[in-house]
Amino acid sequence: MSSLPVTFAEDVINRPIRIQFEAFIDEHRRALNDSLNGLTEEQVRRSLVPSRTTLLGLVKHATSSLGLDDLLNGNRRGPLPLRWVYLHMLRELAQHCGHADILREQLLSQDRRQSPTQSPRTTR
After folding, report:
1. For residue 98, what are the contacts with CB-CB under 8 A and spacing of at least 6?
2. Which of 9, 23, 55, 61 is deepest in the core (most CB within 10 A)?
3. What is the tens place of the pLDDT at every residue in 68-123?
4. In a domain, 3, yes or no
5. Is this model's pTM higher than 0.85 or not?
6. Max CA pair span of the chain
């Protein structure tokens, strides 16, 4: 996660497009990272779906960094503009946040059913 102060989308509306994209991406990365709050290591590594997706796996995937060149090579379609890569990352991070919400809900529900006498470790 970025060590920069929290930047909300409204704060960058009149800034250059690159700063706007980075603000939205950082917000989604923070939201995804927040899905780990209060969970144990075992919980964040637990696979609950056939794809074996875990909360920790989603967070690790989302921390990959983007290059800063205007055109990025290595795609089967040829070089892609950084703008397209940012839009793709934003869409993907938004989907991962939704997946993280579902996995977190399943983890907490599963653990509550297994330990009905214990109070939940976290609430969101």
Report:
1. none
2. 55
3. 656 766 667 788 777 787 788 888 888 888 888 889 999 999 888 887 665 555 55
4. no
5. no
6. 57
